[in-house]
Each structure stands twice: as structure tokens, then as C-alpha cells.
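ERR on first pass: missing label on line 2. Operator R.T. fixed the label and resubmitted. Corrected input:
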Amino acid sequence: MITASPTVPARERAMPGWLRRVATPKTLIIVVVAGLIGYLALVPLYYLIWGTFFDANGFTMGGFARAYGDPRVGGMIGNSLWFAIGAAVLSLAVGTALAYLNVRTDVPFKGLFFAASIIPLIIPGILYTISWIFLASPDIGLLNKLIEPVLGPGFFDVFTVWGMVWVEGLHLSPIVFLLMVAAFRSMDPSLEESALMSGASRWQVFRRITVPLTRPAIVAAVLIMVVRSLESFEVPALLGLQNGIYVFTSRIYFVLRSYPPDLAAAGALAVGLLVLAVIGVAISNLVGRSSKNYQTVTGKGFRPRPMELGKWRPVMGGAIVVYFFLTVVGPLLVLLYTSLLKFYQAPSTEAFASMSLDNYSELFHISDATTALKNSLLLGVGSATLVMALMAVGAWMVVRSRIPGRQLVDYFSFTPLVVPGLVLGLALSFVYLRSPVPIYGTIFILLIAYCTRYMPYGMRYAVTSMHQISSELEESAQVSGASWWQTFRRVLLPLLSPGLLAGWIYILVVSFRELSSSILLYSPGNEVLSILIFEQYENGQFTVLAALGVVMVLTLAVLVVIAYKLGAKVGLRQD
Amino acid sequence: MLRINNLVKTFDGERRRRHSHAATPEEARVFAVNDVSFNVENGQLFTLLGPSGCGKTTTLRSIAGLERPDSGTIEVGGRVLFSTNEGKKPVNVPANERGLGMVFQSYAIWPHMSVFDNVAFPLQVKKRGDRVSRKEISERVMRVLETMELANFADRQATKLSGGQQQRLALARALVIEPPLLLLDEPLSNLDAKLRESLRYELKRVQRELGITSVYVTHDQVEALALSNSIAVMRNGNVVQLGRPREIYENPNCRFVAEFIGTSNFLSGNVVSKDGDRYTVNTVDGQLVLDSAATLPIGTDVIVSVRPEAVEVSTTSRAGEVPNEWKGTVLTRAYLGDSLDHVVGLGKHELRTRGNPSTSIEPGTTVYLRMDPAKLVLVPVD
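pass 2 clean. output:
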């Protein structure tokens, strides 16, 4: 989209003097990059508001009236909060306990933590949800079949709010785990030891020292998880719609899928969801700022002295194995199992006898599958490259330049973080349905959506590595006579490249799993992998879907391994 | 007061085993503390001194109950805190029931509490049986804050204190329960040099005034010499020398101690004759006579430790009047304010001397070095 082209000398000569001074490659690049970042961040939001509040006759609250006048809206908001808070609390409890065990105790199987912590990266939400349907659906769930002789049929029912909380909470728990591991690692263990020496019991230490000191991290984690669950689309769509349990995201999807689609009402719901998300993020930022008071300065790094669990060690070890089976092994195994079957059935000798790789070979014959894989790769590589190119310059503006208004670039690049994927999808369709340029209905609208969504991640990677480069390196290049562009290209870019590459791979990985924006923007022929899985689930093609899922998980696993080898911060590193 | 017998603590060498080529976990085990025994008398300040990794902190943490030793006994005031004696039931009192006071290297001041609450905490968490009334807590906290000159800061957020004040707060918190034993883990190492010096005397004053038995861990020999009633020098998990500060400094029993405490010149040589306590040693640079209580047969290889301040530098010779006069050439000198160092070349080696700054000799000058036999130390070869 943008290539930083040097200005053409012939034209330069024809310019007036002031213009020549201003129109250097430096200003051109900066203006283009800042403009693009602002465009990507603001235009969808503007059109979202516009499309919600204005129709052919001018300002209207009709969309709001239709969206929130519905008698079921109270239940919908209730479900949303129940689901979001429930999943956040579950993920917090599990993630924090695991993090504490990992950092502070001599719990066994520490290697499993690493495997579990990268699970949300390599199993997309949609596959995770479908795996749990295979495991705990009242009709076909394997777990239900397993315990049927004891507790009767349909004991577990994943198609309830509790089921939704369970699946979302488990899927989010590794993220909480990573956040809390960081919090516990940055906390001086002698703060707890000194309480122990003061005569406090383990429980008193936990309640009066550990929890208050990690409270900022806990509050931040819970808010982030609430926001993420509110934005979650896969779980409510696949699990909730079955029994008519609506939350914001699935309601928006439902409104848009009914005929005729009520764009203004969907917009009104999206605005409501956006407001909730903004409130959550704002509070967590406030908490993060106040937590600075808690920082203790200590002279040197802490020596990790893990607490001995003693007789509890095997118990905790067992709990971790159970957790690992629930979050990692179970979902993966059930996918693999299903992918080998002719039709979905409970495990039996016949089932195992009928296993074959037919579903995999079928994948090659479904033209959609190869197209979807191609599209996913194309979009992943495209959006990762564009975002990192933009953000390399953006990060320079934010970190190094003294350009007035550079903070705006920072804010704009982080804005999409609070916009739920489904809301972004809706907003972009508002923009490009009206656009004279034919972008709607092409793959480019997906590219724009991905670039927007992943801008914040790209910015974070680029800014972090920019901070690691001493400004003196840049200054010495300038003193040696290099122009801005030469300095950027020959000094900064090579030094930034590890960070930019890490960000590039991260974006490639997350874009592979994108569903909630794509679901509103794709058109036939432009399906991506996650959309194809969603469609196949709706058509009941479970076995082919599972094969596709296995291929997807393997692809992601390879990408994550590459990212890990390149030193990207994914998952938890032992030591 | 404090009795430690045959304390052993090894660290699981599992990870190390993977990297080295030790075949069994036994081989890969690392002895952090290897058979350490010592007693501390009532009211004494006992220092564990040694380089990092010598096992001093592990020993202290074992006394605290934060580390579980493999074997040995730990007794405070007749109460067994830890024991693995054969035939008897093993004892391991948890850290929170030992009732000891401890000051951590990082002070471990709880940042979410006020100064008052930090000190009150140990009283608030007492067991139901000997719980202290709110009024008494407040009295006792204020009393100890008074002693530490922190009473004016009682309501302040603990993190708003300066480094020195935080150190005193940590001490106040450790002392408020009036523990029988105070453990100090490098409490001065986080402070800048000036403050460290003044707090060193402050700490000594408080310890002597309260008469509280203390175990002090440090890697700073000056601190150890200034504070302690006795010092145990540790190396690789063993106590290599145990004694009063003056003994350790003046009569190191091995090269390691001599090197670790202060600076020293080491001259290797061979015992050529012995008359009572007076030894004559031949070194490459000449002969030395010195006094030593050690019993070493003639012909033994030894090292003579020469403290820089034990060497007198002079431009005039008094050969024949005094023993141990060597001739050399000044190579370089360094003015250090309160003293002046000369480095003197002697045939093969160089000798560092330290003296009054009023004696300053031009490099290149021929000088005479005189060494008092009483101040030279015979160190056995390791």
C-alpha cells in the first residue's frame, strides 16, 4: 500500500523553495504513515457512529430504540455480564493459582506450564469451542458418553451459560497465567519471607501480603479478561445460539444475519459493547497507573527460592496434570480423533476400525479449503508486513522524534485494541459499503480489517525494540553525514529487525485465527480458514472440519516454534 | 545461645546434571553448606563472612527456617528448631513458629502498609493464645520506633522512607517481638558508602545496647571486622577460620583468609630453620625471620603473608640493626589521602607497601624495606 519512494529529482527542481524544504522524503514518509494510522483507527469509528445515528432522514435514535427496546435485551445484557465476569473469574482463579505454583513453589511438571501457556496461540477459539462441543455436548459429547453409566445421559451441557463460562475461562486462563507469572516474578520473595519470619501463617501471608501486593496485576488481569470475554464471538455464537442465549456479540451477528439486516440496530449494539470495553480498559489503565506506588526498589535480582510443598506436592502435581488434560490434551485429542472418522461417533472398536485419513485427502479436493488456506496465508503475510512497516516508522515518531502531536500517533495506533473484532467488522462494512472504490466484497476489506486490528500489537513490538536502541547510534550516523532516510534504513531498520520480525510472526499467527471481524466482511470466494471451519460446523461436516482444524493447529504450531526460536515473547520461557 | 552442629544442605543437582556430565544425582549434588558447626554466646554479634556462593546466606536461611537443611541440628536458647539426629524424631519448626527476627538484604518493607503497620504486623499475627491487645501493640510499636528514631514517621507510607530509614524500619520490625536471636542478611549492602559507614555504627550501638544475640551475614570484610564479636570465614560451604576479628586479620590460617580479609602480599618460600617460635624462611627475594605459633617441620613449603602496612619504606639502610631488611626500587606510588602506597620492585616480585602520606618517594629511587617479624604471618600452603 505504501512504499516509501524517494522523491523524483525532476519534480523537485520544479518546486518552489519552501516546498522543497518541506517535501523531503522524511516528511513525506512521516505524513503518509501518520495519516494511515489515523485513517485506520478513526474512520471506522466515525462511520460506526454515523451509521448508527443517521439515516436518510438525518439524526435518529431509531437503531437504539429497536436494539434496546427489544424485551429480551435485559436478558442479553445480563448474559453478557454473567458470561464475561464468570469467564474472567474462572480464568483468574486458575491462572493465578498456576502462576503462583510455578513461580513460588517446587511443584512438579513445570514443563507442562510452558506447553499450556502457548495453547491459546495455537488452538484458535473456534477450534477450542468445537472441541468442547465434541467433549461435552449433551447429545454427542465424549465425556457424557464416558460417565453415562454412572450419572445418566447428558450430565454435562456445554450449551449453557456455565458451559460458555467454562470454555472461555479455560481458553483465557493461560493468558492470566502469563500476566500473573510476570507479576509474581517481579515481586521480591523476601516480602513474603519476612512476613513468615514475623510469625504469620501461610494463609495470613497470602491474604495480607501476596494478594495486596499483586492486587494491581490481579485487577488488571480481571478487567482485560472481562473485556476479552465481552468481545468473544466464537464461544457465544457456537454455544449460546443453540439455546437462544444471546450476548452482545452474538446478538449483533444475529441482527445482521436476519432479513432484512438492521444495520442501525446492530450499530447501536456495537456502540454499547464498545462503551463497555472502553470502560474496562480505562479502569485497568487507571489501576495500572496507581500501582506504581507499590513498586519497591531493591538492589539486586531476586534469587528464586521455591517454597517446598511437602506432602501437597503430589496433590498439586495431580491438579496440574488434570488441568493440562482439560486445556491441551483433551481438545487436541478429540480433534485428532474426529478427523480420522467417517462420521462423528463415540469411541468404540468399530470407530477405531473405521479410522482413515480420508478426511485429510478430501481437504485437497475441496476447492474452498485450498482457497481458504491461500487466503489466510496471503492475509497473514500481507497484514503482518504492512503493519510492521507502518509501525517501524510510527514507533520512531513516538519514541525518537520531537514532532508535535506524536503522542496522537501512539494513541491512534492503540485505539483498535478496545474495539471488539465484530464491532470493527461492522464499522468497516459501514465505511466500504458507501465507498465508491470497490473494496467491499473483495479480499482487501479483510486486509484493512486485519491491519487495523493488529496495529496495536505491531506498535508494541516496534516501540519496545526502538527503546532498546540507544539514540546515540542514530546520532552518530547523523554526525557521520547520513540523511534521515539513510539513518533509518541502514542503522535503525537492521537493529530493529529482530523485534520487527518477532512482531511480524506474532501478527501472522494471530491473523490465522481471526474470525470475529472476518465473519462480517468475507464474501464467497474470500473465505479464510476460520470462516471455513465456522461454515462447516454450521453444515454439520464435523469430520472434515476436524481434519482442517488439525492442519490449522499444526501450521500454527510450526509458526509459533519459529517465533519462539526467533526469541519472540510468546508463552512462558522456563528460566 | 545459638548452637549449630554439623549442618549440611545440598541443592538438587538435577539441572546441573543435565549440563555437566555427572552420572548420578549424587555426583551432581552441590554442597551449599557442608558440615558447619558453631556456637554463638548470649549477646554476641556473630558474623558469617565469605564471597558469594560460600554458603553463608544458606546457613542463615536454615537458621531462619526458610531453607530446610539435609541434616544437622539448630538450637536457639536450648530450644531445638531443627534436628535430624539418628534415632530421634526429626524436628523442623516452621519459620513462622521460630519467633526469630530477621532483616533482609532488600529490607522487604511491605510497600502497601504504613511504617506503623509494618512494625505492628508481627504482633498482629501472633497466635490466638498470646495475642496482644490493640493498645499494647500501639505502645510496643511506638517504643521500638522511638528507639529507631522513626516515631515521627509512623503514619507515613513505608516506601516514602529513605534507604537508611527503611533499613531502621526493617530492624524495628524484626525487633518488635523481642526475639531471642536476630538474623541479618547483608543489611547494609544496598546503601551507598557514606550511609553504610554511619549505619554500621548505628547497628552496632543498637545491638550492644539491647544485648541481642545476632547472626550477621556479609561479604564485606571491613563491615565484619568493625561489627563482630567473632567471625566465621566461609568458603565453598565450609567454615575455614573462626575467631575474633583481630585473630582473623592478624593470623589468617590460610591463604584464602589472608587474601579475603584486607590486602596482602604473598611470598612463597621454604622453612630453613626454627628456634622456638622464630622461623627463618627462604624466599626467592631473600630471607625472612618471623614469629609464628604454628608447628611446621624444617623443609616445609610455606607462604608468608605480608600486610602492606607491616612494611616500612626508607631511603636509608639500617642493615645489621634490624632483621628483614630488603633492598628494592620504587616502581610507582599512589596517594590515597589518608595513606600512601608504594609498589616496590624486588628482583623477581613486587611488594605493595602502605604508610603515612608524609613519606612519599620518587619512583626509581632505591629504597630499603623493613618488616617486623611479629607482623609477618606464616600461612601453610593449601
